[in-house]
Amino acid sequence: FGLSKGFTLIEIMAAAAIILIAASVSAYLFQSSVGLLKTADLKEQAALAAISQMEELSLIPAKDITASSFAAGRGKISVTPLTPQLLNIEVECLWRDGKPPIKFITQRQL
User: Fold this and answer.
1) Per-residue pLDDT for 85 more than 80?
2) φ and ψ at 51, to 5 degrees?
3) What confidence score (pLDDT) does residue 1 get?
4) CA–CA separation, 44 and 37 (whole Å)
5) How far is CA 28 from CA 34, 35, 36, in A?
6) Strand pairing of 102-109 and 86-93?
7) What's the pLDDT tens digit per position in 8-53?
8) Helices marked H in the chain — which ranges?
């Protein structure tokens, strides 16, 4: 029995299995990161829409602010009197169906 050069079939199969497992894990992590990026983008778009709406509301006298919707119906403005001289204004925007909306709340004096 001399020393053989090269790899045995078992060694090649073990190496192939390790490479296959590593490739599967890499593909899963890549797919997960793409999903997280999409989620972050949707949340950012909703937050920017809500912030833009809040900025527009800051230019309107408090007595003229009414409940309404924006962003093609994905956002809404709710107005609730807290006292006779103070309004609670809530701006929310949906970023994905079935998920809680992005919300911004402020109070304005009449």
Assistant:
1) yes
2) -65, -45
3) 55
4) 10
5) 10, 11, 12
6) antiparallel
7) 999 999 999 999 999 999 999 999 999 999 999 999 999 999 999 9
8) 9-58
